[in-house]
Amino acid sequence: MLHYLVKTVISSLIIVSIVELTKRNLFWGAALASLPITSLLAFAWLYLDTGNSDKVAVLSNTIFWLILPSLILFITLPILLRQGIEFWLSLGIASIATGLAYFGMVKLLGLFSISL
């Protein structure tokens, strides 16, 4: 149980730190947020939990293939917000578009016999 608490606290502190930094300086907040921190944490926690570097390699490979569709969020959200669409609706639409892009990527990769 302590292990899960430590993981939660460390992960939360990183996210809160990014938000607080962004309040002070948008560039550095964005720069820190653009780092694959979530992936790095997932690699570390998965390895610490399982000791299995093969699982980390598979996770890393899968993340690689899913980066492209995730970019849809970062393209769609600012376009919608600049069009005057309310934040939560914009976030919802951008999230749905991203989900569809993930689905499309999985289908496309399947055509090339790449399974995730």
Question: How would you explain this protein's 3D organization?
Answer:
By secondary structure, this protein is an all-alpha fold. The chain has 2 domains: 35 residues; 66 residues. 87% of the residues lie in helices and 0% in strands. It has 5 helices and no strands. Helix 3 runs antiparallel to helix 4 and helix 4 packs across helix 5. The mean pLDDT is 92.
Strand tally: 0
Strand content: under 5%
Overall pLDDT metric: 92
Structural class: mainly alpha
- Secondary structure: helix percent: over 70%
Radius of gyration: 17 Å
Q: Which oligomerization state do the chains in this entry correspond to?
A: single chain
Alpha-carbon distance between the two ends: 30 Å
SSE ordering: HHHHH
Instruction: Give the total of domains.
Output: 2
Shape assignment: flat
Largest sheet: none
Poorly predicted ranges (pLDDT <50, ≥5 residues)? none
Total helical segments: 5
